[in-house]
């Protein structure tokens, strides 16, 4: 039976120098991308080599909240894999062999038309509820969601719940991740994108997943097996730490 791996990227298999797992050293990595500020994104060398071979027979499908622009920065590295599909924009955009599928994109916007009509109200809510002194930049990502870059601070759980309560009235939700806040239509999820893609694949397979944040919960729980690289979980998910050995076991077990 074919194996299909759906995996998050940043914090799961792709890292900045500052976010490298303690088990991983820069000298054991390849540069997967170069940021505009001159910094790099890294992947473990042995994992890249393993995936280059594994993808000749099995399906490796990145599933990321990165915008299309951010995902395409990985084109050189990912061109070394057999990569028929990749989901960007939290499932809102699909790449087929590296090319953006405009029909998928149009279908996403049609499916989310009610929520996307609320975008201006969501922006007003962001500007009202998130302290201006904390905001560095608000990015409209692929005309589907907002990514708010902020200064480093701790967001209280009560405040996060209040923001989500207001967003729910508009069919949106928010995820607070340190210096990045994501505001998305509730139906724009990784698990929804995967469900759409599975309908197209229409084949029996053993589904696997990897992720590292609460934005990956739904994606992980809908597969046969998963690895959740996190120090804590609020959704009764089994957690672990990053290691190539664990990834090998998941993919070859």
Automatic annotation (TrEMBL):
A Pfam family this protein belongs to?
Answer: Hydrolase_3
Q: What is this protein called?
A: Sucrose phosphatase-like domain-containing protein
| Highest classification ranks of the organism | Bacteria, Bacillati, Bacillota, Bacilli, Lactobacillales
